[in-house]
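explain this:

___
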Amino acid sequence: MAIIWELDSNSTNYQVRTAGNSIRLYSNGVFHSQFNPQRPFCGQLWDLLSLPCLFPDPREIHNVLILGVGGGAVIKQLQILLDRPHITGIDIDPTHLHIAQHFFDVNSTVNLVCADAVSWVSEHKGKKFDLIVDDLFFEKDGEPHRAVQADDFWMSLLMQHLSSNGLLVSNFVSRQEFRDCAILQNDALWQQFPSIFQLSTTLTENRIGIFLKKRGDNNHWRRQLLSHPEINTKELRYTLRKVK
């Protein structure tokens, strides 16, 4: 593994490393994201943030919001899975956006914005999103923590910007954090999603919440995975559980 770029800024050490054909981002030694154009889906956590877009018809997903760009691995995957999506990526860290553009090859067709995600979403007046990926994290003592609690305010705010048949994908650091999220605890929010799933992998304690405004079918999703030419399902070590 070779370090090809490194920066120390504001108490954060950023490293971009290569491992074979993969490009990797580390922040303070924490493995942040990875992308390999020859194996775009290889069983890592970020696969679970992009693959839920196959629950609906991918042709129905046009406008996408990514909250927490990191290196841009999820953006690269969604560009493979979707038909020319319009993607907006928000990250408060300008170094992440620099790395996404210059090392992960996130091209100029993606609208990358350096901003506080809560402020940006609160002030957004444009078109609603067919897919929102909520992946806002920071590292503390070498461990990831959600940057914005999944409380009534935040989840309601995200839902205001979700299209009528939209899909919300949220990353939680544990099973308990997923269970405590407002959509599962607030009946008014719960009723707005006909289908809810939990996705996880043996590699991490994280749980991915998949909240669909249109009823989803797990068998349909698995068929989509099996039929996609870029996805080697033998490398996907995941567990999908239907919550609703």
